[in-house]
Design brief:
With about 250 residues, the protein is mainly beta. The chain has a single domain, classed as monomeric porin ompg (Porin), CATH 2.40.160.40. It is built from one helix and twelve strands. It has one helix spanning about 1-15, and strands at about 40-50, 55-70, 75-85, 90-105, 110-120, 125-140, 145-160, 165-180, 180-190, 200-210, 215-225, 235-250. A twelve-stranded antiparallel β-barrel has the order 1-2-3-4-5-6-7-8-9-10-11-12. Strand 3 and strand 4 form a beta hairpin. The longest helix is centred in the N-terminal third of the chain and has 16 residues, at about 1-15. The chain starts with a helix and ends with a strand.
């Protein structure tokens, strides 16, 4: 089970570090299972540095810490920060903190509650605060296909337009498949407003994982996202591809 948790975590990190210009869904909802280890640590780090004709610093660091609270419960703390500077000027800044509690109701059903705070200068988000919960169901004992449904309240504060607060629904699907040594993870997300179904957000992702040495993987991630009513004149669609180096540790 912990492998699905760790794979899902990196997908979430991709969404916060990749500079896109539509909406800002972060795939932390897929972390909705109990741990089969007492402690799990996941770290993603990367960056680009250029000197000479230009001075560019793009550094990001993201982490996930999972702690088992017994056979049926666990808690996760996730966080990340990315900062891009060019010739001494700040071009973009993103960060998030996510706290999640999971309770395994039975072998295939998990309940979760979470809170999240983030900012993203590219998306004109001075702050975005979420509170919500999900219920998930595993279609197989191997837990390689999962569906989730839930509700959350979001409050967004923008720098260039009015703030917005609403309740959205969550419809989530996560699947994974191993092809030799390569791990393939797919993800789909649908977030409609409960007051206006035409105000909705979508995301689809795929991630390919290549083992390097024990505990380390190279991950290539791609995502496409759509926001039916983006704020501050942002675009409806955005797509992106990123490459990350990931470390994973689990203590039994």
């Amino acid at each position: 089970m912990r492998h699905l948790l760790a794979k899902s975590f990196t997908l979430g990190l991709y969404l916060i570090i990749n500079p896109t210009q539509a909406q800002s869904i972060i795939n932390t909802s897929s972390i909705s299972h109990d741990l089969d280890s007492t402690l799990s640590i996941v770290i993603d780090a990367g960056g680009n540095i250029s000197r000479g004709n230009s001075r560019v610093d793009d550094v990001n660091l993201n982490f996930g810490l999972g702690k088992s609270l017994g056979e049926d419960a666990s808690v996760w703390l996730l966080g990340g920060h990315n900062e891009l500077r060019g010739n001494g000027s700040l071009l973009q800044k993103t960060s998030f903190v996510h706290l999640r509690y999971n309770y395994e109701f039975n072998s295939r059903t998990t309940l979760s509650a979470y809170s999240q705070s983030q900012l993203n200068t590219v998306l004109d988000l001075e702050s975005r605060v979420l509170f919500g919960g999900n219920i998930s169901y595993d279609f197989s004992k191997e837990q390689n296909a999962t569906a989730m449904i839930g509700l959350f309240h979001e409050a967004e504060k923008y720098a260039l337009s009015d703030s917005k607060s609403m309740v959205r629904m969550n419809f989530v699907g996560v699947a994974e498949q191993k092809l030799g040594n390569i791990e393939v993870i797919g993800f789909a997300y649908y977030q409609p407003s409960i007051m206006d179904l035409f105000d909705s957000r979508y995301i689809t992702e795929i991630s390919l994982r290549f083992p390097i040495v024990k505990g380390f993987q190279l991950s290539v991630n791609g995502a496409g996202r759509f926001d039916s009513q983006p704020h501050s004149s942002l675009r409806n669609w955005d797509v992106g591809v990123s490459t990350t180096l990931r470390y994973e540790f689990h203590k039994s």
